[in-house]
Automatic annotation (TrEMBL):
One of its GO terms (molecular function) is structural molecule activity. It holds the Pfam family WD40. PANTHER family: NUCLEAR PORE COMPLEX PROTEIN SEC13 / SEH1 FAMILY MEMBER (PTHR11024), PROTEIN TRANSPORT PROTEIN SEC13 HOMOLOG B (PTHR11024:SF20). This is Uncharacterized protein. Keywords: Protein transport, Repeat, Transport, WD repeat. PROSITE patterns: WD_REPEATS_2. GO terms for biological process: COPII-coated vesicle budding; protein import into nucleus. It comes from Genlisea aurea.
Length: 284
């Protein structure tokens, strides 16, 4: 089946594309400082969101139980929460300017945990904004999580953090580590540091379908993608190098069931991988 080409209308480099929950729209982020909302079925341009003053690195759709809502992060150091008030009419619901440098990554927590957004910045900090019933936001900060800069953040699935009040996320940084963070009753602390040989460009915590096993993928400037597996809470992380891509690896992303991993590398390739019966990872 041939792929479908969608003209975004952006005037500069495209950095991120995210499909909404129902698979009917995409949001795109670009160096032209804008975000576009485009219908997939007819490629109709539904909205052009203007508010950032620098390249927009990432966009992230919130779960639809919270309404039609989108987050964006930018080189300008800001995170903007956009809300669709009426069809194709979007407003800036909130603007967070707490970071002192580029915000490189954003990720919504699993919807069961409420409306919470993690943000990773080049200033070394991770911020977490959690919506209150009164419409305001509570903020918590992981100070200097990666002093040289944070490149990526990803939340643990709720099945792995079933304990009330417990949240976990993983972050990647320019210090060559992926770090696992645990928030229990409002306080964040580092639980584990997973090592690479160079910048960690992206991290992705896999959906676990309610199983106790936890799996994280990390992509690095060192050309390697590593799969980190913890059989159950309290165990140590086991690691397996998926492959050496012989060049920087930019992004990793799991399928909804957590059994297939997509990898985007610096040679403009996107490959799909899955775990075989013998525990080895093979290209699909």
């Amino acid at each position: 089946m041939p792929g479908k080409r969608i003209e975004t209308g952006h005037q500069d480099v495209l950095h991120d594309v995210q499909m909404d929950y129902y698979g009917k729209r995409i949001a795109t982020a670009s160096s032209d400082n804008t975000i576009r909302i485009i219908g997939i079925g007819n490629s109709q341009h539904l909205a052009n969101l203007i508010g950032h003053r620098g390249p927009v690195w990432q966009v992230a759709w919130a779960h639809p139980k919270f309404g039609s809502m989108l987050a964006s992060c930018s080189y300008d150091g800001k995170v903007i929460i956009w809300k669709e008030e009426k069809e194709t009419e979007w407003i800036q619901l909130s603007v967070f300017d707490d970071h002192k440098a580029s915000v490189n990554s954003i990720c919504w927590a699993p919807h069961e945990s409420g409306l919470s957004l993690a943000c990773g910045s080049s200033d070394g900090n991770i911020s977490v904004f959690s919506a209150r019933p009164d419409g305001g936001w509570d903020k918590s900060i992981i100070e200097q999580s990666h002093p040289a800069g944070v490149t990526s953040v990803s939340w643990a699935p709720t099945g792995f953090t079933a304990t009330a009040g417990l949240q976990k996320l993983v972050s990647g940084g320019c210090d060559g580590t992926a770090k696992v963070w645990r928030r229990d009753n409002g306080t964040w602390r580092m639980e584990d540091a997973l090592l690479h040989g160079d910048w960690v460009r992206d991290v992705a915590w896999a959906p676990n379908m309610g199983l106790p096993k936890s799996t994280i993928a990390s992509a690095s400037q060192d050309g390697k993608v590593t799969i980190w597996i913890k059989p159950k809470e309290g165990d140590e992380w086991d690691s397996k190098v998926l492959d050496d891509f012989e060049g920087p690896v930019w992004r990793v992303s799991w399928s909804l069931t957590g059994n297939i991993l997509a990898v985007a590398d610096s040679k403009q390739n996107v490959t799909l991988w899955k775990e075989a019966v013998d525990g080895e990872w093979i290209q699909v």
